[in-house]
Amino acid sequence: MTADLFAVMLDIYPSRLELAEGAVLLRHFAKDIDGELLRALDTIVAQAPFRHLITPGGYRMSVAMTCCGRLGWVSDRSGYRYEIADPETGLRWPVLPEIFAGVASKAAIQAGYNHFIPDSCLINRYEPGAKLSLHQDKNERDIAAPVVSVSLGLAAVFLFGGTERSDRSQLYRLEHGDVAVWGGASRFNFHGIAPVEDGYHPLFGRKRINLTFRKAG
Ligand code: MD6
Ligand code: FE
Q: Fewer CB atoms near the end CB (10 Å): N or C, the chain?
Protein backbone atom coordinates (compact mmCIF):
# COMPACT_ATOMS: atom_id res chain seq x y z
CA MET A 1 0.00 0.00 0.00
CA THR A 2 2.95 2.33 0.62
CA ALA A 3 4.10 2.13 -3.00
CA ASP A 4 0.49 2.73 -4.05
CA LEU A 5 0.33 5.82 -1.85
CA PHE A 6 3.58 7.20 -3.29
CA ALA A 7 2.28 6.59 -6.79
CA VAL A 8 -0.82 8.64 -5.96
CA MET A 9 1.20 11.47 -4.42
CA LEU A 10 3.59 11.64 -7.32
CA ASP A 11 0.78 11.14 -9.83
CA ILE A 12 2.78 8.49 -11.65
CA TYR A 13 -0.02 6.01 -12.21
CA PRO A 14 -0.16 5.04 -15.85
CA SER A 15 -3.27 6.62 -17.38
CA ARG A 16 -4.22 3.41 -19.16
CA LEU A 17 -3.88 0.15 -17.30
CA GLU A 18 -4.68 -3.29 -18.73
CA LEU A 19 -6.37 -5.28 -15.90
CA ALA A 20 -6.88 -8.47 -17.88
CA GLU A 21 -7.64 -9.48 -21.45
CA GLY A 22 -10.51 -7.19 -22.53
CA ALA A 23 -10.41 -5.07 -19.34
CA VAL A 24 -8.89 -1.60 -19.21
CA LEU A 25 -8.72 1.04 -16.48
CA LEU A 26 -8.57 4.65 -17.73
CA ARG A 27 -7.36 6.78 -14.85
CA HIS A 28 -9.07 10.16 -14.36
CA PHE A 29 -10.83 9.82 -17.72
CA ALA A 30 -14.08 11.49 -16.52
CA LYS A 31 -12.57 13.99 -14.07
CA ASP A 32 -12.91 17.03 -16.34
CA ILE A 33 -16.68 16.63 -16.64
CA ASP A 34 -17.40 15.79 -12.99
CA GLY A 35 -19.59 18.88 -12.42
CA GLU A 36 -21.77 18.09 -15.44
CA LEU A 37 -22.07 14.45 -14.39
CA LEU A 38 -23.18 15.53 -10.90
CA ARG A 39 -25.81 17.90 -12.31
CA ALA A 40 -27.21 15.16 -14.55
CA LEU A 41 -27.19 12.76 -11.60
CA ASP A 42 -29.20 15.18 -9.44
CA THR A 43 -31.88 15.37 -12.14
CA ILE A 44 -32.11 11.56 -12.31
CA VAL A 45 -32.27 11.13 -8.53
CA ALA A 46 -35.10 13.70 -8.29
CA GLN A 47 -37.20 11.37 -10.51
CA ALA A 48 -35.91 7.97 -9.38
CA PRO A 49 -34.57 8.21 -5.82
CA PHE A 50 -31.81 5.98 -4.47
CA ARG A 51 -33.09 2.88 -2.68
CA HIS A 52 -31.59 -0.14 -0.95
CA LEU A 53 -32.65 -3.21 -2.93
CA ILE A 54 -33.31 -6.60 -1.36
CA THR A 55 -31.30 -9.55 -2.67
CA PRO A 56 -33.03 -12.80 -3.70
CA GLY A 57 -31.65 -14.21 -0.42
CA GLY A 58 -33.50 -11.53 1.58
CA TYR A 59 -30.63 -9.21 2.48
CA ARG A 60 -30.85 -5.42 2.21
CA MET A 61 -27.94 -4.19 0.07
CA SER A 62 -25.63 -1.66 1.77
CA VAL A 63 -25.23 0.10 -1.59
CA ALA A 64 -28.15 2.33 -2.59
CA MET A 65 -29.10 2.13 -6.26
CA THR A 66 -31.10 3.80 -8.97
CA CYS A 67 -31.05 3.63 -12.77
CA CYS A 68 -31.59 5.56 -15.95
CA GLY A 69 -32.02 4.55 -19.57
CA ARG A 70 -34.51 2.32 -21.36
CA LEU A 71 -33.95 -0.50 -18.88
CA GLY A 72 -33.09 -0.49 -15.19
CA TRP A 73 -31.56 -3.26 -13.10
CA VAL A 74 -33.58 -4.39 -10.09
CA SER A 75 -33.38 -7.04 -7.41
CA ASP A 76 -36.00 -8.42 -5.04
CA ARG A 77 -36.99 -11.74 -3.48
CA SER A 78 -37.81 -13.15 -6.91
CA GLY A 79 -34.38 -12.46 -8.43
CA TYR A 80 -32.24 -10.05 -10.47
CA ARG A 81 -33.51 -8.64 -13.76
CA TYR A 82 -33.91 -5.58 -15.97
CA GLU A 83 -37.21 -3.69 -15.91
CA ILE A 84 -38.71 -1.01 -18.18
CA ALA A 85 -40.34 0.79 -15.22
CA ASP A 86 -39.06 1.77 -11.79
CA PRO A 87 -40.86 -0.52 -9.31
CA GLU A 88 -40.81 2.29 -6.68
CA THR A 89 -42.75 4.80 -8.79
CA GLY A 90 -44.27 2.69 -11.58
CA LEU A 91 -42.82 5.23 -14.05
CA ARG A 92 -40.29 4.68 -16.83
CA TRP A 93 -36.68 5.18 -15.71
CA PRO A 94 -35.26 8.69 -16.33
CA VAL A 95 -33.68 9.28 -19.73
CA LEU A 96 -29.98 8.44 -19.98
CA PRO A 97 -28.37 11.90 -20.27
CA GLU A 98 -26.17 12.71 -23.26
CA ILE A 99 -23.22 13.56 -21.03
CA PHE A 100 -23.45 10.01 -19.58
CA ALA A 101 -23.75 8.24 -22.95
CA GLY A 102 -20.94 10.36 -24.39
CA VAL A 103 -18.37 9.54 -21.72
CA ALA A 104 -19.30 5.83 -21.84
CA SER A 105 -18.93 5.62 -25.63
CA LYS A 106 -15.64 7.54 -25.60
CA ALA A 107 -14.17 5.37 -22.86
CA ALA A 108 -15.26 2.22 -24.71
CA ILE A 109 -13.45 3.41 -27.85
CA GLN A 110 -10.28 4.05 -25.80
CA ALA A 111 -10.51 0.48 -24.58
CA GLY A 112 -10.99 -0.94 -28.09
CA TYR A 113 -14.79 -1.35 -28.16
CA ASN A 114 -16.22 0.74 -30.98
CA HIS A 115 -19.90 1.66 -31.32
CA PHE A 116 -20.85 1.08 -27.68
CA ILE A 117 -24.27 2.69 -27.18
CA PRO A 118 -25.59 1.92 -23.68
CA ASP A 119 -29.33 1.53 -23.08
CA SER A 120 -28.98 1.22 -19.31
CA CYS A 121 -27.03 2.88 -16.53
CA LEU A 122 -27.02 1.44 -13.02
CA ILE A 123 -26.08 4.06 -10.43
CA ASN A 124 -24.55 2.89 -7.15
CA ARG A 125 -24.20 5.10 -4.08
CA TYR A 126 -21.78 4.03 -1.34
CA GLU A 127 -21.76 5.69 2.03
CA PRO A 128 -18.81 4.88 4.34
CA GLY A 129 -18.88 1.16 5.17
CA ALA A 130 -21.00 0.17 2.15
CA LYS A 131 -19.63 -2.63 -0.03
CA LEU A 132 -20.55 -4.76 -3.01
CA SER A 133 -19.87 -8.48 -2.68
CA LEU A 134 -18.09 -10.44 -5.37
CA HIS A 135 -20.45 -10.92 -8.33
CA GLN A 136 -20.67 -11.34 -12.10
CA ASP A 137 -22.69 -9.07 -14.38
CA LYS A 138 -24.68 -11.53 -16.44
CA ASN A 139 -28.24 -10.23 -16.69
CA GLU A 140 -27.53 -8.33 -19.92
CA ARG A 141 -28.74 -9.71 -23.23
CA ASP A 142 -25.95 -8.27 -25.38
CA ILE A 143 -22.81 -9.87 -23.98
CA ALA A 144 -20.70 -8.73 -26.94
CA ALA A 145 -20.99 -5.20 -25.52
CA PRO A 146 -18.64 -4.24 -22.67
CA VAL A 147 -19.64 -2.73 -19.34
CA VAL A 148 -18.27 0.78 -18.71
CA SER A 149 -17.90 1.91 -15.10
CA VAL A 150 -17.33 5.51 -13.96
CA SER A 151 -16.20 6.16 -10.37
CA LEU A 152 -16.88 9.50 -8.66
CA GLY A 153 -16.36 10.90 -5.18
CA LEU A 154 -14.65 8.86 -2.46
CA ALA A 155 -12.07 6.31 -3.59
CA ALA A 156 -12.67 2.58 -3.18
CA VAL A 157 -10.79 -0.68 -3.40
CA PHE A 158 -11.97 -2.70 -6.37
CA LEU A 159 -11.59 -6.48 -6.32
CA PHE A 160 -11.13 -7.94 -9.77
CA GLY A 161 -11.12 -11.72 -9.98
CA GLY A 162 -11.37 -14.37 -12.65
CA THR A 163 -14.19 -16.35 -14.18
CA GLU A 164 -14.52 -18.62 -11.11
CA ARG A 165 -15.65 -17.28 -7.74
CA SER A 166 -12.67 -19.02 -6.12
CA ASP A 167 -10.11 -17.28 -8.40
CA ARG A 168 -7.83 -14.92 -6.55
CA SER A 169 -8.79 -11.22 -6.88
CA GLN A 170 -6.43 -8.41 -7.76
CA LEU A 171 -6.96 -5.15 -5.91
CA TYR A 172 -7.10 -1.74 -7.54
CA ARG A 173 -7.85 1.63 -6.04
CA LEU A 174 -10.59 3.42 -8.00
CA GLU A 175 -10.47 7.18 -7.65
CA HIS A 176 -12.67 10.08 -8.60
CA GLY A 177 -12.94 10.19 -12.40
CA ASP A 178 -11.50 6.73 -13.07
CA VAL A 179 -13.24 4.72 -15.77
CA ALA A 180 -13.05 0.94 -16.13
CA VAL A 181 -14.14 -0.80 -19.32
CA TRP A 182 -14.43 -4.50 -19.71
CA GLY A 183 -15.81 -7.10 -21.99
CA GLY A 184 -14.55 -9.86 -24.25
CA ALA A 185 -12.59 -12.48 -22.32
CA SER A 186 -13.20 -10.63 -19.02
CA ARG A 187 -16.92 -9.97 -19.49
CA PHE A 188 -17.94 -12.46 -16.78
CA ASN A 189 -15.08 -11.97 -14.34
CA PHE A 190 -16.06 -11.81 -10.69
CA HIS A 191 -15.61 -8.40 -9.10
CA GLY A 192 -16.67 -6.36 -6.09
CA ILE A 193 -16.02 -3.31 -3.91
CA ALA A 194 -14.44 -3.49 -0.44
CA PRO A 195 -16.16 -1.50 2.34
CA VAL A 196 -15.68 2.18 1.48
CA GLU A 197 -13.58 4.11 3.94
CA ASP A 198 -14.85 7.34 5.41
CA GLY A 199 -13.57 10.55 3.88
CA TYR A 200 -14.73 13.75 2.27
CA HIS A 201 -14.76 14.61 -1.40
CA PRO A 202 -15.08 18.32 -2.32
CA LEU A 203 -17.84 17.70 -4.90
CA PHE A 204 -19.52 14.49 -3.66
CA GLY A 205 -19.05 14.75 0.10
CA ARG A 206 -18.98 11.50 2.10
CA LYS A 207 -20.05 9.36 -0.82
CA ARG A 208 -18.80 7.25 -3.66
CA ILE A 209 -20.92 7.15 -6.79
CA ASN A 210 -20.42 4.56 -9.49
CA LEU A 211 -22.15 4.63 -12.87
CA THR A 212 -22.15 1.36 -14.84
CA PHE A 213 -23.26 1.48 -18.43
CA ARG A 214 -24.54 -1.59 -20.23
CA LYS A 215 -26.33 -2.74 -23.30
CA ALA A 216 -28.98 -4.65 -21.40
CA GLY A 217 -31.70 -5.21 -23.99
C1 MD6 B 1 -18.70 -0.34 -8.46
N2 MD6 B 1 -19.03 -1.92 -10.16
O3 MD6 B 1 -17.65 0.02 -8.96
C4 MD6 B 1 -19.34 -1.62 -8.84
N5 MD6 B 1 -19.74 -4.18 -12.81
O6 MD6 B 1 -19.27 0.31 -7.59
C7 MD6 B 1 -19.45 -3.04 -10.76
O8 MD6 B 1 -20.11 -3.88 -10.20
C9 MD6 B 1 -19.10 -3.22 -12.16
O10 MD6 B 1 -17.44 -1.55 -12.13
C11 MD6 B 1 -19.45 -4.42 -14.09
C12 MD6 B 1 -18.50 -3.71 -14.75
C13 MD6 B 1 -17.82 -2.72 -14.11
C14 MD6 B 1 -18.11 -2.47 -12.78
FE1 FE C 1 -20.72 -5.47 -11.52
A: N
d(CA 72, CA 74): 6
Q: What is the per-residue pLDDT for 13?
A: 61
For Cα atoms 57, 135, 131, give the angle at the middle one, nearest 5 degrees: 80
Which residue has the least CA distance to atom 10 on ligand 1? 149
pLDDT (tens digit, 9 = 90+) per residue, 6-55? 665 565 566 999 999 999 999 999 999 999 999 999 999 999 999 999 99
Give the three-state DSSP class for 36. helix
Residue 64 near ligand 1, beta carbon < 6 Å? no
Tell how far the Cα of 202 is from the centroid of ligand 1, in angstroms. Answer: 23
| pTM of the full structure | 0.93
Give me the residues paired with residue 191 across strands: 135, 160
Going from the Cα of 185 to the center of ligand 1, the distance in angstroms, rounded, reads 16
| Phi (first) and psi of residue 109, to 5 degrees | -60, -45
State percent of the chain over pLDDT 70.
94
CA of 79 to the centre of ligand 2 (A): 16
Report the pLDDT value the prediction gives residue 113, as an integer from 0 to 100: 96
Confirm or reject: Cβ of 74 under 6 Å from ligand 1: no
What is the enclosing helix (H) or strand (E) of 132? strand 132-135
